[in-house]
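Methods — Computational structure assignment.
A single polypeptide chain was analysed. Its primary sequence is given first, followed by the predicted tertiary structure written as structure tokens.
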Amino acid sequence: MRIDTEVLRMRISRLRQLISDTCVPSDAPEEIRHILDTTPTLFRDVEAAIQSNDPMALEHCHDLLKTMETYIEWAVGTVSGRIMAEEIKSGKDTNPSLNREQRLNNRITRFLMTKIDGPKYLSLVREFAGEDSVKGDTVYMDTRGETEDFSQWLLHDTVLPGESQRIIDLFATAELATLPSDEQDLLRMRLADRLSIYRVVKQSKNEIYLVQDLLSLDDIIRIKDRSTSLSLQKGSVFIGRALPIYTKDRLHCLMGTITELPNTLWSILSGSTGKSLRNYLEKNLGSTTQDFFRIHHAQLRREIRNMGPW
């Protein structure tokens, strides 16, 4: 594997920016303070190794940065989550200087806190990520994907006991008309999300590629996404949440990260998934593949984790 030194430097720069944008409170857990206090020395060591241009040293830098990204993002995410929770509890208004996604997420989080308490939240984490994801009151999830996937699942797929709609739908009913116009546009996109398992069937220019919905094989949609257009190949299979971009081109973008499934793994899962889908649709007339996957999403992810690394 060829390691690009410029990409390594960009990764370090992004992590430095993450840390500099985070105000760590004095009462932050010691584990978090240790991670953030020791990173400057590690950054300098990695940068010195990059200067050598030694292929083995560069590969070591790549591996070390992967570990650092996991720990730093977990620490920053934990601090940011606590700060947001405190601001919400104190009644502090959403900061209008934030970008529209941050503003909307802040408002949805406030709304969510009126629907679930701490014990219920931890119960939902266990449902999504397994029993070992919670120890006491501490959540242990991989911040490079699992935490974001959980947040999407919680807001976009879960119907809480006693409710008839997803949390994102409940929020829209209550708050859509009061939001700034840019947040309204984003919320409408998120309400029309399309969660599924996709296969890349055609790549083209301009960061656009075609995917087939593997739960609804007649459906082909166009995705525009720079990062995945570079990382995915024709035939790649992934779990992703597509949002419609309301233009004449009928494009979709991807919400957050994707979970790529090796073809050998999908070949194992496709049989049982297809059978479960057929049984669900037969028993729930009028339901859709989206209804099915929202209900089975967490179960499938747990199954993938239990099957081990691929």
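Note: Residues 55-89 form the longest helix (35 residues).
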